[in-house]
Amino acid sequence: MASEKEAGPNKDSLRGFEVIDKIKYLLEEECPLTVSCADILAIAARDAVQLRGGPRWEVLLGRKDSLESSFSGANLLIPAPNSSLEALINNFAQQGLDIGDLVALSGSHTIGRARCVSFRQRIYEEKQEYHYGYDRYNRYTSFRRILESVCPVTGRDNKFAPLDYETPKRFDNHYFINILQGNGLLGSDNVLISQDYDGKITNMVWSYASNEELFFKSFAKSVIKMGSINVLTGNEGQIRKNCRFVNT
Protein backbone atom coordinates (compact mmCIF):
# COMPACT_ATOMS: atom_id res chain seq x y z
CA MET A 1 0.00 0.00 0.00
CA ALA A 2 1.46 3.36 -1.07
CA SER A 3 1.61 5.51 2.05
CA GLU A 4 0.66 9.18 2.40
CA LYS A 5 3.98 9.56 4.21
CA GLU A 6 5.71 9.09 0.86
CA ALA A 7 3.60 11.72 -0.95
CA GLY A 8 5.41 14.82 -2.18
CA PRO A 9 4.23 17.27 0.54
CA ASN A 10 5.07 14.79 3.32
CA LYS A 11 8.20 12.93 2.21
CA ASP A 12 11.26 13.74 4.38
CA SER A 13 9.13 16.32 6.17
CA LEU A 14 6.59 14.81 8.58
CA ARG A 15 8.02 13.60 11.87
CA GLY A 16 6.94 12.34 15.27
CA PHE A 17 5.27 9.10 14.22
CA GLU A 18 7.08 7.25 16.99
CA VAL A 19 5.20 9.43 19.52
CA ILE A 20 1.88 8.27 18.09
CA ASP A 21 3.15 4.67 18.10
CA LYS A 22 3.97 4.92 21.80
CA ILE A 23 0.60 6.42 22.68
CA LYS A 24 -1.16 3.72 20.69
CA TYR A 25 0.85 0.95 22.35
CA LEU A 26 -0.05 2.18 25.83
CA LEU A 27 -3.73 2.53 24.93
CA GLU A 28 -3.87 -0.95 23.43
CA GLU A 29 -2.33 -2.37 26.61
CA GLU A 30 -5.07 -0.80 28.73
CA CYS A 31 -8.07 -0.61 26.38
CA PRO A 32 -7.67 -2.77 23.27
CA LEU A 33 -9.41 -1.63 20.08
CA THR A 34 -11.03 1.35 21.79
CA VAL A 35 -9.26 4.54 20.65
CA SER A 36 -8.52 5.03 16.96
CA CYS A 37 -5.30 6.42 15.55
CA ALA A 38 -7.35 9.24 14.01
CA ASP A 39 -8.59 10.28 17.45
CA ILE A 40 -5.07 10.00 18.89
CA LEU A 41 -3.78 12.39 16.22
CA ALA A 42 -6.59 14.86 16.89
CA ILE A 43 -5.95 14.85 20.64
CA ALA A 44 -2.16 14.99 20.26
CA ALA A 45 -2.46 17.99 17.94
CA ARG A 46 -4.61 19.83 20.50
CA ASP A 47 -2.25 19.02 23.36
CA ALA A 48 0.84 20.02 21.37
CA VAL A 49 -0.69 23.42 20.64
CA GLN A 50 -1.63 23.94 24.29
CA LEU A 51 1.80 22.86 25.56
CA ARG A 52 3.37 25.53 23.32
CA GLY A 53 1.21 28.29 24.77
CA GLY A 54 -1.76 28.05 22.42
CA PRO A 55 -5.48 27.53 23.02
CA ARG A 56 -7.25 24.41 24.22
CA TRP A 57 -10.43 23.07 22.65
CA GLU A 58 -12.72 20.10 23.10
CA VAL A 59 -11.85 17.35 20.62
CA LEU A 60 -14.82 15.50 19.17
CA LEU A 61 -14.13 11.77 19.34
CA GLY A 62 -15.41 8.58 17.75
CA ARG A 63 -13.44 8.54 14.48
CA LYS A 64 -12.52 5.28 12.80
CA ASP A 65 -9.27 4.64 10.95
CA SER A 66 -9.25 4.20 7.20
CA LEU A 67 -9.02 0.81 5.53
CA GLU A 68 -6.69 2.22 2.91
CA SER A 69 -4.07 4.89 2.33
CA SER A 70 -4.43 7.77 -0.12
CA PHE A 71 -1.07 8.57 -1.67
CA SER A 72 -2.74 10.38 -4.57
CA GLY A 73 -5.06 12.27 -2.23
CA ALA A 74 -2.14 13.64 -0.23
CA ASN A 75 -0.47 14.82 -3.42
CA LEU A 76 -3.63 16.46 -4.75
CA LEU A 77 -5.24 17.94 -1.65
CA ILE A 78 -2.39 19.33 0.46
CA PRO A 79 -1.72 22.93 -0.69
CA ALA A 80 1.68 23.56 -2.26
CA PRO A 81 4.02 25.99 -0.44
CA ASN A 82 4.03 28.27 -3.50
CA SER A 83 0.25 28.31 -3.95
CA SER A 84 -1.49 31.47 -5.06
CA LEU A 85 -4.18 32.96 -2.84
CA GLU A 86 -6.84 31.88 -5.32
CA ALA A 87 -5.54 28.30 -5.23
CA LEU A 88 -5.55 28.30 -1.42
CA ILE A 89 -9.11 29.61 -1.25
CA ASN A 90 -10.30 26.99 -3.75
CA ASN A 91 -8.41 24.20 -1.97
CA PHE A 92 -9.99 25.06 1.38
CA ALA A 93 -13.43 25.50 -0.19
CA GLN A 94 -13.26 21.95 -1.57
CA GLN A 95 -13.06 20.77 2.03
CA GLY A 96 -15.92 22.97 3.21
CA LEU A 97 -13.63 25.60 4.75
CA ASP A 98 -14.08 29.32 4.10
CA ILE A 99 -11.70 32.27 3.95
CA GLY A 100 -11.96 32.80 7.71
CA ASP A 101 -10.83 29.22 8.25
CA LEU A 102 -7.97 29.68 5.79
CA VAL A 103 -6.62 32.70 7.65
CA ALA A 104 -7.06 31.25 11.13
CA LEU A 105 -5.56 27.86 10.26
CA SER A 106 -2.63 29.50 8.46
CA GLY A 107 -1.73 30.81 11.90
CA SER A 108 -0.58 27.28 12.77
CA HIS A 109 2.62 28.28 10.94
CA THR A 110 3.61 30.01 14.16
CA ILE A 111 5.29 26.69 15.06
CA GLY A 112 6.93 23.98 13.01
CA ARG A 113 9.60 23.94 10.33
CA ALA A 114 9.82 23.65 6.55
CA ARG A 115 12.42 22.16 4.23
CA CYS A 116 14.57 24.32 2.00
CA VAL A 117 12.93 22.82 -1.08
CA SER A 118 9.62 24.26 0.16
CA PHE A 119 10.78 27.87 0.42
CA ARG A 120 13.64 28.18 -2.10
CA GLN A 121 11.30 29.58 -4.75
CA ARG A 122 10.14 32.22 -2.28
CA ILE A 123 13.74 33.42 -1.80
CA TYR A 124 15.09 33.52 -5.32
CA GLU A 125 12.14 34.19 -7.61
CA GLU A 126 11.60 37.90 -8.19
CA LYS A 127 7.87 37.89 -7.66
CA GLN A 128 6.21 40.92 -6.13
CA GLU A 129 3.96 38.72 -4.00
CA TYR A 130 7.04 37.23 -2.31
CA HIS A 131 8.83 40.52 -1.69
CA TYR A 132 6.79 43.26 -0.07
CA GLY A 133 5.84 44.54 3.37
CA TYR A 134 6.43 47.24 5.92
CA ASP A 135 10.22 47.31 5.86
CA ARG A 136 11.14 50.61 7.47
CA TYR A 137 14.12 49.09 9.27
CA ASN A 138 15.22 46.74 6.46
CA ARG A 139 14.01 43.74 8.42
CA TYR A 140 12.94 41.94 5.26
CA THR A 141 16.38 42.38 3.68
CA SER A 142 17.95 40.83 6.77
CA PHE A 143 15.38 38.03 6.79
CA ARG A 144 16.06 37.18 3.17
CA ARG A 145 19.81 37.01 3.84
CA ILE A 146 19.15 34.59 6.70
CA LEU A 147 17.10 32.38 4.40
CA GLU A 148 19.79 32.49 1.72
CA SER A 149 22.35 31.30 4.28
CA VAL A 150 20.12 28.35 5.15
CA CYS A 151 18.96 27.51 1.64
CA PRO A 152 21.32 28.11 -1.31
CA VAL A 153 20.17 28.20 -4.93
CA THR A 154 20.98 24.50 -5.27
CA GLY A 155 21.54 21.73 -2.74
CA ARG A 156 20.62 21.33 0.93
CA ASP A 157 17.03 20.51 -0.01
CA ASN A 158 16.31 18.94 3.37
CA LYS A 159 17.76 21.73 5.48
CA PHE A 160 15.10 23.07 7.83
CA ALA A 161 14.06 26.59 8.79
CA PRO A 162 11.39 27.58 11.32
CA LEU A 163 8.10 28.80 9.91
CA ASP A 164 8.21 31.63 12.47
CA TYR A 165 11.71 32.98 13.00
CA GLU A 166 10.70 35.31 15.83
CA THR A 167 9.07 32.83 18.25
CA PRO A 168 9.62 29.41 16.62
CA LYS A 169 8.80 27.31 19.70
CA ARG A 170 5.76 29.20 20.94
CA PHE A 171 2.23 29.05 19.63
CA ASP A 172 1.26 32.72 19.47
CA ASN A 173 0.04 35.33 16.98
CA HIS A 174 3.48 36.31 15.69
CA TYR A 175 2.87 34.60 12.35
CA PHE A 176 0.47 37.38 11.44
CA ILE A 177 2.96 40.07 12.43
CA ASN A 178 5.52 38.31 10.24
CA ILE A 179 3.40 38.26 7.09
CA LEU A 180 2.42 41.92 7.51
CA GLN A 181 6.16 42.62 7.28
CA GLY A 182 6.62 40.28 4.31
CA ASN A 183 8.47 37.80 6.50
CA GLY A 184 6.42 34.66 5.98
CA LEU A 185 8.69 31.71 5.27
CA LEU A 186 6.55 30.19 2.51
CA GLY A 187 5.31 31.89 -0.60
CA SER A 188 1.82 30.73 0.34
CA ASP A 189 2.13 32.65 3.62
CA ASN A 190 2.92 35.96 1.98
CA VAL A 191 0.18 35.80 -0.66
CA LEU A 192 -2.42 36.18 2.10
CA ILE A 193 -1.43 39.85 2.03
CA SER A 194 0.14 40.50 -1.35
CA GLN A 195 -2.71 38.97 -3.39
CA ASP A 196 -5.56 40.17 -1.18
CA TYR A 197 -6.78 42.88 -3.51
CA ASP A 198 -10.02 43.69 -1.69
CA GLY A 199 -8.39 43.88 1.76
CA LYS A 200 -10.71 41.42 3.50
CA ILE A 201 -7.98 38.99 4.48
CA THR A 202 -5.57 41.78 5.36
CA ASN A 203 -8.11 43.11 7.86
CA MET A 204 -8.32 39.66 9.46
CA VAL A 205 -4.54 39.45 9.64
CA TRP A 206 -4.32 42.85 11.30
CA SER A 207 -6.99 41.78 13.81
CA TYR A 208 -5.09 38.62 14.75
CA ALA A 209 -1.74 40.42 14.83
CA SER A 210 -3.12 42.88 17.37
CA ASN A 211 -5.33 40.52 19.36
CA GLU A 212 -3.90 37.10 20.23
CA GLU A 213 -6.99 36.04 22.15
CA LEU A 214 -9.14 36.64 19.07
CA PHE A 215 -6.78 34.51 16.99
CA PHE A 216 -6.85 31.70 19.54
CA LYS A 217 -10.65 31.69 19.59
CA SER A 218 -10.91 31.64 15.80
CA PHE A 219 -8.18 29.00 15.45
CA ALA A 220 -9.90 26.62 17.88
CA LYS A 221 -13.22 27.02 16.06
CA SER A 222 -11.63 26.31 12.66
CA VAL A 223 -9.63 23.32 13.94
CA ILE A 224 -12.81 21.70 15.25
CA LYS A 225 -14.41 22.31 11.85
CA MET A 226 -11.40 20.86 10.03
CA GLY A 227 -11.39 17.84 12.35
CA SER A 228 -14.89 16.94 11.12
CA ILE A 229 -13.94 16.63 7.42
CA ASN A 230 -14.62 13.21 5.88
CA VAL A 231 -14.75 11.47 9.25
CA LEU A 232 -15.22 7.70 9.16
CA THR A 233 -17.63 6.20 11.69
CA GLY A 234 -19.42 2.92 12.27
CA ASN A 235 -18.59 0.26 9.69
CA GLU A 236 -16.86 2.74 7.39
CA GLY A 237 -13.50 2.07 9.02
CA GLN A 238 -11.78 0.26 11.87
CA ILE A 239 -9.78 0.90 15.03
CA ARG A 240 -6.28 -0.14 14.11
CA LYS A 241 -4.16 -2.14 16.50
CA ASN A 242 -1.05 -0.54 15.03
CA CYS A 243 -1.30 2.87 13.40
CA ARG A 244 1.15 1.85 10.67
CA PHE A 245 -0.96 -1.05 9.39
CA VAL A 246 -4.53 -1.98 8.55
CA ASN A 247 -5.77 -4.82 10.77
CA THR A 248 -5.58 -8.25 9.12
From TrEMBL:
This enzyme catalyses: 2 a phenolic donor + H2O2 = 2 a phenolic radical donor + 2 H2O
Plant heme peroxidase family profile domain residues = 1-247
| Keywords associated with the record | Disulfide bond, Heme, Iron, Metal-binding, Oxidoreductase, Peroxidase
Q: Name one GO molecular function term.
A: lactoperoxidase activity
Enzyme Commission code(s) on record: 1.11.1.7
InterPro entries the record matches: Haem_peroxidase (IPR002016), Haem_peroxidase_sf (IPR010255), Peroxidase_pln (IPR000823), Peroxidases_heam-ligand_BS (IPR019793), Secretory_peroxidase (IPR033905)
What family is this protein classified in? Belongs to the peroxidase family. Ascorbate peroxidase subfamily.
* Name under which the protein is recorded: peroxidase
Origin organism is Stylosanthes scabra
